[in-house]
Automatic annotation (TrEMBL):
This is N-acetyltransferase domain-containing protein. InterPro entries: Acyl_CoA_acyltransferase, GNAT_dom. It comes from the Eukaryota. Residues 194-213 have a biased composition (Acidic residues). The lineage of its organism: Eukaryota, Metazoa, Echinodermata, Eleutherozoa, Asterozoa. Residues 106-118 have a biased composition (Low complexity). Gene3D superfamilies: 3.40.630.30, 3.90.228.10.
Length: 668
C-alpha cells in the first residue's frame, strides 16, 4: 500500500494547568498524514493496516466521528465526502495505547489529571529522534483558580473551521473529564468519544437509526470495547486490549490543494477538530503550525479557510487575515460554509523551501519578483482607469456636440416652418382680399349696368357672398385693416403708455418714441408661456411690465423677440438670479440698453414679498411663483423702495415671460 504522505513521529506533550492536585499530565501522541481516498483505492486496503492493530476502516470512522462530535452542524455524509475527497489529506494526532491505559487506571484509582503549577507549559519534542516543526506553550489557568488570559494564543478555540464545538472564552476553561464530550450535540457518532467509564447510558439509540454497514459495525465495536474496559477496570485487569482508535485519536485536520486556477498554489483547510478534553493545550496551534510548514504541504501561495464566526479570533492570532478585498480572490476557490468568514494566510518570503536552511539570496529574489509584479499590476490598473476616464470624457464631448447640432437643426427647421406658415398665411389672405376686391368691382359694374329696380334678389346674394369672404378673412386672425406695419411704423397706443410710464423729472430730457417693433415669437414659445401660466398657483394674475435687463447683453434682443427668454437672459442681482421686471419704464431704463426697452407679458401667479437681499436665490419660496422686492435702485438710494416706486418683480422661470414689443426711443 502506498500513501501520499505518512509520518510516525512520536510527540511527548506535557501539560500543566492549575488545579487542586499537583500531579502532572503527560500526553504523548504520534502525528500521521494520509489520504483516505488513495488508501481505500489501494489493493492492500484490507490486508495492511496503516496503524498497527487498527483496521483502516475503523480509522476513517473514528475521524468522521470526531468531526461529527465537534462540528454537529455538518452531516456525516458531507464529512465523508470532504475527508475522502480526491485531493484531501488528513493530519491525525494519535496517542499510544499504553498511555491511554495508564490514564484510565489513574482515573480508576481516583487520581486526577490536573496539576498545580500555573506557569508550567506543554512542550512538543520528538521521542524517536524525528524532527518536529514547532513547540507548544500553554499558560491556561483552570476556572476558579486564577484569571484567564484571553489574549493567549492557545486560550481560545482550537477547532471549528466550519463550526465550533468548544465553549467560548470565559466559559468552561478547566481541564475537563472525558465525560465532557457527551455534552456535544447528539449525532450518529455521539457516543464514540464519550469516554466515561461509568455504567450509565451504556445503551445507545443508534440501533434504531439507518446507518451504513461500516458505521454500524464500528459503533457496535465501540460499545463492546467500552463495556469490556469497564469490566477490566472493575476487576483490576489491564484495559489495553480493549482500547480502540476512538480512545487514541485526540485531534485531526483535513486540507486539500485547489486545482481551479492552473499555476496558483492555494491550499484550503476544510476541517479541524480537537477532542474536548485536550483543548486549551495548544494542540490547535500545533496543527496550524504544521499546516504552514512547507515540508508538510509543499510550496504554496496562500492558505485559505472558511472559519466559524467564533473561531475568527483564533485564526487571526495565527496570521490569518479576514480582509474582504484580499479574500475576494479566493471566493471561487474554497467551498462556502454557512455562517463562516473567509480568511487566508500568506506565507513570508523566507522559509518557502523544503530545505532545512533558507537561502537569503533566493528570498531576496522572490521579494524582488513580487515587487516587480506589484508595480506592473499597479501601472496596468492605472492605465486602465485613465483609458476608461478618457473614453468617457470623449464620449460626453461627442454626445454634447451631437445634441448641440441637433438643437441648432431643430431651431432652424422650426424657424423655416414658421416662416413657411407665415408666407402661406399672407398668400391666402392676399388671395381672399383679391377675391373680395374683384367681387366688389364686379358688383359695382353690375350696379351701373343694371338699373332695373326689380333685381333685388341678385344684390342680396352678392352681399351674402361679401360677408362670407369677410368672415373667412377674420378666421385667419387678421382683420382687413391689420396689415403688417412697415419698418419705422409706431404703435401709438404702446408709445403713449410708454411715455406716460417714463418719469421725465428723473430723465435728462423729454422721451420721444422713434420705433416700436412687435415681437415675432415662435408658436412653441407662446405655447410654453400659456402652459406655464395655466400651472401657476394663481393663473389669472398676469400683467404687462418692462424688462429690467439687456444692459450687459444688448445683442440678445433680436433672439428674445424671435425665440423668447432663456436662462441666458437672467440677471444676477441682489435679490437672486432671474428675470427682473418693473411697472415703471423709467426704472427699467436704468438696467436696459440705451434707447431700447422691452415690453413683456409676465405671468406673476402667487407673489411673495421679499425685503432681505440674497444674491444666491434661484427659486421662489415654497408655495409662490414670483417674488416682489424693494428694487435694486432702492438699495442704491438707501430709501424705502416699497414706497418710492422702485419695486421689482423677479421670476425664476423664463417660460413665465413672453416678449411683446421692443420700444426704441431717444431723449431730447
Amino acid at each position: 500500500m502506498q500513501k501520499a504522505e505518512a509520518t510516525h513521529d512520536s510527540l511527548a506533550e506535557s501539560a500543566c494547568v492549575s488545579g487542586l492536585q499537583s500531579e502532572r499530565l503527560s500526553v504523548s501522541c504520534t502525528p500521521v498524514i494520509l489520504e483516505f481516498r488513495r488508501l481505500f483505492q489501494s489493493a492492500k486496503f484490507k490486508s495492511v493496516n496503516l496503524i498497527p492493530g487498527v483496521p483502516n476502516w475503523e480509522l476513517l470512522h473514528a475521524v468522521i466521528a470526531l468531526y461529527d462530535v465537534c462540528l454537529p452542524d455538518i452531516t456525516p455524509e458531507v464529512l465523508y465526502f470532504t475527508v475522502c475527497g480526491k485531493w484531501a489529506k488528513t493530519l491525525l494526532l494519535i496517542r499510544d495505547t499504553q498511555d491511554v491505559a495508564a490514564d484510565l487506571n489513574s482515573k480508576s484509582s481516583g487520581k486526577s489529571g490536573s496539576c498545580v503549577s500555573s506557569d508550567a507549559g506543554i512542550s512538543v519534542s520528538p521521542t524517536n529522534g524525528s524532527h518536529v516543526t514547532s513547540d507548544l506553550v500553554v499558560t491556561d489557568l483552570e476556572q476558579g483558580q486564577g484569571s484567564t488570559n484571553h489574549n493567549d494564543p492557545v486560550n481560545e478555540n482550537e477547532q471549528g473551521i466550519v463550526r465550533n464545538g468548544e465553549e467560548k472564552a470565559g466559559g468552561e476553561s478547566s481541564y475537563p473529564t472525558e465525560a465532557g464530550d457527551s455534552k456535544e450535540k447528539k449525532g450518529i457518532f455521539a457516543d464514540v468519544f464519550s469516554d466515561t467509564e461509568s455504567e450509565e447510558d451504556t445503551e445507545s439509540d443508534e440501533d434504531d437509526e439507518d446507518f451504513t454497514e461500516g458505521q454500524e459495525a464500528f459503533l457496535r465495536l465501540v460499545r463492546e470495547r467500552r463495556e469490556r474496559r469497564q469490566l477490566a477496570l472493575s476487576q483490576g485487569r489491564d484495559p489495553s486490549p480493549h482500547i480502540g482508535i476512538e480512545s487514541r485519536l485526540i485531534a485531526c485536520a483535513t486540507w486539500e490543494k485547489s486545482t481551479i486556477r492552473p499555476g496558483e498554489r492555494n491550499v484550503q483547510i476544510d476541517l479541524l477538530a480537537v477532542r474536548k478534553r485536550f483543548r486549551k493545550l495548544g494542540i490547535g496551534k500545533y496543527l496550524l503550525q504544521t499546516l504552514k510548514d512547507v515540508s508538510v504541504l509543499g510550496l504554496y501561495d496562500a492558505l485559505v479557510v472558511y472559519a466559524d464566526n467564533s473561531a475568527v479570533d483564533f485564526f487571526g492570532r495565527h496570521g490569518f487575515d479576514d480582509d474582504i478585498v484580499l479574500n475576494s480572490k479566493f471566493s471561487d476557490l474554497a467551498d462556502n460554509w454557512t455562517n463562516c468568514t473567509l480568511m487566508c494566510y500568506l506565507p513570508p518570503f523566507s522559509g518557502q523551501t523544503i530545505m532545512t536552511e533558507s537561502d537569503a539570496g533566493l528570498d531576496l529574489k522572490l521579494m524582488e519578483l513580487e515587487l516587480q509584479k506589484w508595480s506592473l499590476k499597479s501601472r496596468e490598473a492605472h492605465q486602465a482607469q485613465m483609458a476608461c476616464a478618457m473614453k468617457l470624457k470623449h464620449e460626453v464631448i461627442s454626445l454634447r456636440a451631437l445634441v448641440s447640432s441637433q438643437q441648432e437643426l431643430i431651431r432652424s427647421l422650426t424657424r423655416e416652418l414658421e416662416q413657411l406658415g407665415a408666407d402661406k398665411f399672407h398668400m391666402e389672405k392676399d388671395f381672399l382680399q383679391q377675391q373680395l376686391s374683384d367681387l366688389t368691382v364686379n358688383i359695382g359694374a353690375k350696379a351701373r349696368n343694371h338699373t332695373d329696380p326689380g333685381d333685388d334678389t341678385e344684390e342680396v346674394d352678392t352681399n351674402k357672398l361679401i360677408q362670407d369672404l369677410e368672415r373667412r378673412i377674420t378666421t385667419f386672425g387678421v382683420a382687413e385693416t391689420e396689415s403688417p406695419a412697415p419698418d419705422g411704423c409706431i404703435n401709438w397706443q404702446i408709445a403713449e403708455e410708454f411715455r406716460l410710464s417714463m418719469d421725465d423729472s428723473v430723465m435728462a430730457g423729454m422721451c420721444v418714441v422713434t420705433k416700436t417693433v412687435k415681437a415675432n415669437v415662435s408658436s412653441s414659445a407662446t405655447e410654453m408661456f400659456n402652459t406655464r401660466c395655466r400651472h401657476l398657483r394663481d393663473p389669472s394674475l398676469h400683467t404687462k411690465m418692462y424688462l429690467c435687463g439687456t444692459l450687459q447683453h444688448p445683442e440678445r434682443i433680436p433672439r428674445i423677440l424671435s425665440d423668447g427668454f432663456t436662462e441666458q437672459d437672467f440677471s444676477h442681482g441682489e435679490f437672486g438670479v432671474g428675470l427682473y421686471f418693473s411697472q415703471h419704464a423709467s426704472k427699467a431704463a436704468h438696467f436696459s440698453a440705451l434707447g431700447k426697452l422691452l415690453l413683456v407679458e409676465v405671468g406673476l401667479g402667487k407673489t411673495d414679498s421679499v425685503v432681505k437681499p440674497d444674491n444666491t436665490r434661484v427659486a421662489p419660496p415654497d408655495g409662490f411663483d414670483t417674488v416682489v422686492t424693494p428694487g435694486r435702485l432702492s438699495l442704491l438710494s438707501g430709501g424705502d423702495g416699497m414706497i418710492s416706486g422702485c419695486q421689482e418683480y423677479v421670476i425664476f422661470d423664463p417660460c413665465q415671460a413672453l416678449p411683446l414689443y421692443l420700444i426704441e426711443y431717444r431723449l431730447e
